[in-house]
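Minutes, structural biology subgroup

Action item carried over from last meeting: produce the structure token record for ABC transporter substrate-binding protein (Agrococcus versicolor). EB confirmed the sequence was re-checked against the source entry. Recorded below for completeness.
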Amino acid sequence: MRRSIPAVALVAALALAGCSSSDAPAAPSSDAPPASADAATSVTNCGVDAAFETPPERVVTIKSSTTEALIALGLADRIVGTAFQDGPLPDGLDVDEPLPVIDERMPGAESVLALEPDLIFSGWESAFAADAVGTRAELAELGVATYVWPTACMSADAPTEVTFDDIAAEVEQIADIFDVDASGVLADQEEMLADIAPDDRDLTALWWSSGTETPYVGAGQGAPELIMDTAGLTNIADDLEGGWSPYGWESVLAADPDVLVIVDSDWNTAANKIAYLEADPTLSQLTAVQERRYVIVPFAASEAGVRTAEAAASVALQVSEIAL
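Output recorded by EB:
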């Protein structure tokens, strides 16, 4: 249960806790049904135990994956602030009023706690740090619950792979916390997945997320691997651990992938990445660059969440249009 504490007191308490911490050990569903008065859910999230005696009513979301999950579940009216959004909402995920933005990047504790949230829902575990919104232990002391999108766990319970069953289970857990029905969201995703025709030409691919001198690419255990595999592509970096990893251009040149999956973001657009490839004397010799075999994925759809099925369907469609 969230204790009602004035925002100024919350910030002051969090500052004191931070000083002493070193001494201490698819398309949206219909409107969410009313919460049950006796609803209670207990979860272990990134190694942290959390109990929700009642569904959260005031939520701050950090990263697009969390915002989009709540909107898809019909919970947009619970969002009192957003931060570090990776791009605009996709078609089909609509809100009646623009969601309030706290910060374009990682917010600080003061701006978040001023909204008196009873839950901070983050797509990155790193949000819960003393130099960000505060540690999970500090926030719990203040009566503010915390939750990380499970496939983003790093300190504990880090996934060794990501599957659509995992994502479905995560959506269901979020729905349980809020005491709403996830079946419509999951049915839409299952239908989307069922319509995907994986490419059967044994094409290899590189998932390029960011970086130029050293590219940061989709590795073998995260959403990029799941999306490419679902679309029928073989990831040339699938031997790397984790969801994303640095990967030298020398390795890319040696593998000479058939397709380049390029992540598009406001701060590092796909157009800029393609221009970089085509202007480089060496990288421009890659077969995929010579033949312009580019597949584009929005950054906001590149992390595990309610858009992963949509991303896989989009990649599969774009690959099907590539002529060899």
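Discussion: The CA atoms of residues 223 and 303 lie 6 Å apart.
Next step: EB to file the record with the rest of the batch.
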